Predict the structure.
Amino acid sequence: MRASQYLIATVKETPSDAEIVSHQLMLRAGLIRKLASGLYTWLPVGLRVLHKVSQIIREEMDKSGAMEVSMPVVQHAELWEESGRWQTMGPELLRFTDRHGRDFCLGPTHEEVITDIVRNEYSSYRQLPATFYQIQTKFRDERRPRFGVMRAREFIMKDAYSFHINQESLDKTYQVMHETYCNIFNRLGLDFRPVIADSGNIGGSTSHEFHVLADSGEDEIVFSSEGDYAANIELAEGILSPPAHVDDNGKHSHEIVDTGAACTIEEVSAFLQTKPECIVKTLIVHAADKTGKRTDELVALLLRGDQELNETKAQNIDGVASPLEFADDDAIESTVGCKVGCLGPYQLALKVVADKSVIDLQNFVCGANQNGKHLINANWDDNCKYDVVADIRKVQEGDGSPDGLGTLQIKRGIEVGHIFQLGKKYSEALKANVLDKNGKAVTMLMGCYGIGVTRVVAACIEQNNDAHGITWPDNIAPFQLIIVQIDAHKSEQVVDVAESLYTTALSLGMEVLLDDRDKKTSPGVKFADSELMGITHRIVVSPRTLADGNVEYKHRKDGEKQMINKESIAEFLSQVASKAGIIRP
Ligand code: ATP
Ligand code: MG
């Protein structure tokens, strides 16, 4: 490509609305442009990178045995009604009607469509397992699109779906996908961690997320300092040390004491001269009925005073509304009879869920369910009670790792992939059956596997940048080589050498950008652009070095400038080409 006839849409200033480095650099390097909130055009330079990332994903998916398909973005409502999601999906699902008044949506994901294909095309267990994938546009009307393509409304996902006759087969494919994802993210040169993820109320370690480590990440991930344990903070477990002070004098009898206006854990702790870890904190949320529907009834959640609630864990508990809904002050006052700040598990006529951190407490402090009063020396067998014990605590850095190896560390991550065992959720609803070896119809089991392809590009930039721009890993840089010609209007030799290098590099199979822009583009701008776009190898052809018979070479990331004699450039280029992994026979 010749820069004079190519869209180099670089921008010098950092766009004010871009908060994170990848978003800034994607705009500045001319990879993307915003059309509207969460909607982006991929410009030529950006699209080259996107295609390379897609190709790596495609190659690894093909290697895993998955079959590529392409499903429509527009989907009709009937399928979504069959799965039940037409009713349950919120406003993320963009719905519309066609000219005949029929309901449609833009696909945020494709479980329904692929299940429909498989139920029609497959009839026997002999045809299973089968995995399909596509690399395709998704639309989700995100509440808060932000960070450019990181959380967009329209984005590209690699989504895959597998179908099985039994759990053993699903487990096997799940493992293959886990390995495939590791291969993909390794090939992309990313520093990533697979972590156990929340699988809603399905439970078990049937879901993993793949996170790229970056401070700008929206998620918190937790991992052991010494073992393999790694989990999303939403469901991470940790071993908590007991409170530092233990009362050896046995259990005392409780007493109700005036605590005045002290309401928060800090205030009560200061007022009663007690450590927060010896106080039981009580939170009141809405209950759910047997079908999972939120009700007006309330449930109390108990935590040690120095601990925080993990809302995801709490809402996954049977009988607790999901999404979690805290009761308002009026509801609490009319049900319990006191204000927030004096709540406790003392003679409380609500269902009480106790976090594991509170059940071993002795002679603790808690609210007395009377305004301005707390209990001291409270004990579980002395008018305080709980009904269910659960882990509803948010882990903290330094907790013991649940595998017993080391302590927990917390870092931020960008979720670039997600693998999930769906079981029969969609196949049952859509009656996707095959005949087993006894000729009996059985419902298939399913797995689903997603990668945010456009998000991967942004995540990669979060990990690969410096003060001058993007420092792509070699295999996804938009071009492998840039030839920058300087002062061509002053020297014909510059043009001759640059053109001949360009032809040689092309014949070696390299992806080359020849920066032949005229004198209106200064040398400084050309250098800055090449670094901003992160083109791996750079050769500068200028009258100054040609006077000594040389051109100048530099690697974007690690290279010092190096003079190469123009007679040996062809050979040098073929070395560069072979380093870049392009070797022509
Ligand atoms: P998130 O928690 O980030 O919203 P999700 O759980 O909704 O993700 P999945 O439905 O599992 O995501 O989608 C698979 C992958 O698609 C995610 O791992 C992520 O990389 C990507 N993805 C999801 N939503 C977006 C979005 N709005 N913009 C860009 N990529 C996205
Ligand atoms: Mg989402």
